Amino acid sequence: MDVYGIIGNPVEHSLSPPMHEAAFRERGIDAKYVTFEADVDRIEEAFHGAEALGVDGLTVTLPFKHDAFEFVEPEESVRRVGAVNTIDFTESGPVGYNTDMTGTLRAFEHHDVALDGADAVVVGAGGAARALAFGFEEAGADVAIANRTESKAHDLADEVPGATGHGLDELPELMAEVDVVANATSVGLESDDSVAPADAWHSDLVAFDAVYTPLETTFLGDAKAAGAQTIDGAWMLLFQGVDAFEIWTGEEAPVDAMNEALRSHL
Ligand code: NAP
């Protein structure tokens, strides 16, 4: 039996186990997907231990995505992001991927939203924002980054080719001009706050929210009410898992079964 899992702290409420178990079942793969709550002070040992035990692959979640980057041989596109959320233990060593980034791009494709040539604003400058900003840029979008702490928006913009950094006060102006607005802050997580003013939305925008609890955040609700297209955060979660499954198994992921399993646990 193959063994996969998610490593983080905390991990007990992770939705990855039901999603990956459903995928293995659907494809008839004899594998188990388990949760590993690692000691934050012993993460390096934990990664080496997983490798020594013959674990086949890991999803890496907070707060270990940067530690994972240090542990693996990062796959090409991950080098700039500096964070790894998927490890494939191969015969030649652990290889690291960032499927938060590639999975979000697949979520946009799934919704027929073209990023090539689009103007996109990423709100936030933390880990999720890094994945989105580098991903959007790689997909051909012009990226603006707006963050509460403006200096962090400028720091991230300096790393992403062609990107510009802004304070949150500039968000309404940016929203009047761009095609895509992506919330990569934790605003709206289990609350009805939104990082974007309700009256800044219009029907030419596509709204994406990385937050998925609740599934319809105020950010997305306001966007929808103004006639904008919306993509919820569960699509990012789904497609990061879809990409991980395909990296680990080399098989096409059963997207519908994974989506059903995920949404039935939300
Ligand atoms: P993070 O690194 O801690 O970054 C948090 C960001 O939120 C920072 O830019 C911070 O701004 C901003 N922020 C926090 N409180 C704010 C407030 N009250 N007003 C304005 N901005 C505020 O977190 P992260 O890892 O990037 O995660 C961000 C969100 O994405 C979380 O809700 C997480 O659950 C979600 N996420 C979802 C997926 C998925 O698969 N759907 C994957 C990864 C993350 P400052 O710099 O000013 O502090």
Architecture overview:
Helix content is 41%, strand content 21%. With 266 residues, the protein is an alpha/beta fold. It is globular and about 55 Å long. Helix 5 (99-110) crosses helix 6 (127-138). It has 11 helices and 12 strands. The model has no long low-confidence stretch (mean pLDDT 97). It binds NADP nicotinamide-adenine-dinucleotide phosphate (NAP). NADP nicotinamide-adenine-dinucleotide phosphate binds at residues 100, 124-129, 147-149, 152, 184-187, 189, 195, 210-212, 233, 236-237, 240.
Q: Largest beta sheet, briefly?
A: 6 strands, mixed
The helix-strand sequence is: EHEHEHEHEEHEHEHEHEEHEHH
Query: How much helicity do the residues have?
Result: 40-55%
Shape annotation: globular
Radius of gyration: 18 Å
What class do helices, strands and sheet pairing give?
Answer: alpha/beta
Average pLDDT rating: 97
How many strand elements? 12
Cofactors, ions, other ligands: NADP nicotinamide-adenine-dinucleotide phosphate
Amino- and carboxy-terminal Cα gap: 28 Å
- Beta-strand content estimate: 15-25%
In what order do the strands lie side by side in the largest sheet? 2-1-3-5-6-4
Poorly predicted sequence stretches spanning 5 or more consecutive residues? none
How are the secondary structure elements laid out?
Layout: E1 2-8, H1 16-27, E2 31-37, H2 43-53, E3 57-60, H3 65-71, E4 73-74, H4 78-81, E5 86-90, E6 93-97, H5 99-110, E7 119-123, H6 127-138, E8 142-147, H7 150-159, E9 164-167, H8 171-177, E10 180-183, E11 206-209, H9 218-225, E12 229-231, H10 233-249, H11 255-264
Parallel strand pairs: 1-2, 1-3, 4-6, 7-8, 7-10, 8-9, 10-11, 11-12
Antiparallel strand pairs: 3-5, 5-6
Helix pairs in contact: 1-10, 1-11, 5-6, 5-10, 10-11
